[in-house]
Amino acid sequence: MQWKLLSPKKIVLPNGKEVLEKRSIQPLLWLIILVLLFFSIRITGFSLEVLVNRIQEFFVILQQMIPPNWDYLSKLWQPLFDTIKMSLFGSVAGAVVALPIAILAATNIMKNKGIAMVSKLILSLLRTLPTLIVALIATFIFGLGTMAGTVAIFLFTIAYVGKLLYEQIENANMEAYEAMHSMGLTTIQAFRYAILPQILPNYLSTSLFCFEGNVRYASILGYVGAGGIGLLLNESLGWRSYENVGMILLMLVCTVFLIETTSEYFRKKLM
């Protein structure tokens, strides 16, 4: 037996009862989105006319970057290595520290709701802070250089990996964990043997993906003096040396491509 739709608002069930269909709120949602979009355009001063008339200026700058200044390549190796080292160390350290914080934030592992709430609050606060702002604050504390950039990437990695990780822990199968707990194992021991094998592939995959992004983020941290190749990028843009900018961007594209290709290979193996 099938239900018979008499009208858009009335349905007859197989037992003969009539049920009124609830009105959809989708039109109201679309209206709210359109109103918000309208005010966003007005507030930001977006102009399609200006975009159409000035888009060719982008290609003017792009033409000035081509061909890149190959003589500038010798000055890029050390800052590029600094950028990679900042990203690698910050990502690894952040991913390691994110694990215990994620355990404390997971409500199925941490029975103390206060500790779990505070841990989640810390991760939320770290996520709300832009990496560039964190790097700027770090330059006031640690001075100009790669140390400030590494701290900024470290904190971002904790927030990113920690958030995804504690959600994976909360969705893990708890049967083996509870069985080990009942046999007398401690929380850490039960987590190690029952939960960690379930989340380990996703944990490593997320950490690798975060490292890919951190290489790109690290390239702009030089705008606030946080070291790396971003310092040269900021300097070249300031002096309108677009052929040098082209060389920097070419090196970054090649580096990010190699890192992403390698990372994707290992992520597929892990998954």
Give a written overview of the molecule:
This protein has a single domain (71-270), classed as MetI-like (MetI-like fold, Orthogonal Bundle). Residues 1-7 have low confidence and may be disordered. The longest helix has 32 residues, at 187-218. A hairpin with a 5-residue loop joins strand 2 (10-12) and strand 3. It starts with a strand and ends with a helix. Helix 6 (131-142) crosses helix 7 (146-170), helix 8 (175-182) crosses helix 9 (187-218) and helix 9 (187-218) runs antiparallel to helix 11 (242-270). The protein is extended, with a radius of gyration of 26 Å. The chain is mainly alpha-helical. It contains 11 helices and 3 strands, in the order E-E-E-H-H-H-H-H-H-H-H-H-H-H. It has helices spanning 26-44, 48-54, 56-65, 77-105, 113-128, 131-142, 146-170, 175-182, 187-218, 230-238, 242-270, and strands at 4-7, 10-12, 18-20. It has a 3-stranded antiparallel sheet with strand order 1-2-3, with no helix packed on it.
